[in-house]
Amino acid sequence: METKDLGIYIHIPFCVRKCAYCDFLSYGVEAANEFGIKDIHRAYIESVIAELGSYVEKCNDRNIATIYIGGGTPSILDSSLMLKLFDYIKENYRVNDNAEITIECNLGTTNIEKFKAYKNAGINRLSLGLQSTDNAMLKILGRVHTYEEFLKQYEDARSVGFDNINVDLMSALPNQTVDMYVNDLTNVIALNPEHISSYSLIIEEGTHFYNNPEIINNLPSEDDAVRMYELTNEYLANAGYNRYEISNYAKNGYESRHNSSYWKLTDYIGVGLGASSYFEGVRYKVHRNLKSYISGDYHHEEVEEISNKDSMEEFMFLGLRMMEGVKCSDFKRRYGVDIESVYGEVIEKHINLGNLIKTQSHIKLSAEAIPISNQVFVDFML
Ligand code: SF4
């Protein structure tokens, strides 16, 4: 039987408290308590395990290449629950020996014992939310940790033997100057993590930042925001990080395999509240009602069969986010037609504008087009 690789994403929708900019599906401790569910974390993990169980048969010809526990703040859970989850996965799925297994951690919820437990469970990659190295900024963002606490816990993670760590940073923050951001970059580079992500702040509806004049009126100018974006690449390239996706940088060989599989449109199942899946040509999402999820209802909503046309568009948008670009032979293998026969005109137009580069095997964004990538992607709508 042919075996294909599969990724698993598991969503943990709990945090200590909601950060001021966050629109992810997550509940702070107080909001979670309002559900009045006894031992809510345990109950949630039991439902996750039940949902995972519903895929076992469908996925029995699949090798699990990556597992990503995201959120929310997965590290808020007691380690015994994480072990329970991993015991279930290992007993019921065929996890590759070299699978990349990541857990997102937010500082203020981890300690050395938890890191040891993660290692024992087989987790081999940590993604640490830092966002800024400036304590005043961390306060504005509503983060629950200081930079000094982050440093201590980063050291703990290293001392336990984690040798594949991502640090998340943010730019274009309220009151942030270019110098302040450069200071963040310099501090993070000095830590020497294997992977760094840096996203610009986007003010999302429904967050504390939304419509808040103190925040909106103190955002950096557009020029400064672009400058921060450019400096990210400059500083990280000088420090030996490759930009392999618009906002993601890694030392050689440490590119996130799980995230790369999203950009390459390979199959993954998303388990947990609101998690999305892309599986055998269908994209779908678990509903977002925590109470009914915990009572064992994990029905899907927003089920969408991906047509060939939609799939081609996504393949291009997502593929072009990666610096290596889209491999022409992959397009042909997937869709049975040459990329030129579908996108020849668009590709030529953007090559002439200097936005795309064609190599022997790939089509990719030029460095100059990265800040305007969305304008390029739009042209790939069919
Ligand atoms: S820790 Fe992450 S998921 Fe939780 S509230 Fe903050 S930004 Fe959102």
Globular, elongated, flat, extended or rod-shaped: what is the shape?
Answer: globular
The fold-level CATH name of the largest domain is: TIM Barrel
By CATH, the architecture of the largest domain is named Alpha-Beta Barrel
Structural class: alpha/beta
Could you walk me through the main structural features you see in this protein, from its secondary elements to its overall organization?
This protein is an alpha/beta fold. The chain has two domains: 4-263, Alpha-Beta Barrel (TIM Barrel), CATH 3.20.20; 308-382, Arc Repressor Mutant, subunit A, CATH 1.10.10. Helices cover 40% and strands 23% of the residues. The protein has 15 helices and 15 strands. The strands form three sheets. A nine-stranded mixed beta sheet has the order 7-8-6-5-4-3-2-1-9, sandwiched between helices. A three-stranded antiparallel beta sheet has the order 10-11-12, with no helix packed on it. α2 (40-53) runs parallel beside α3 and α7 (178-191) runs parallel beside α9 (222-238). The longest helix is centred in the middle third of the chain and has 17 residues, at 222-238. It is globular and about 60 Å long. 38% of the residues are buried. The structure holds iron/sulfur cluster.
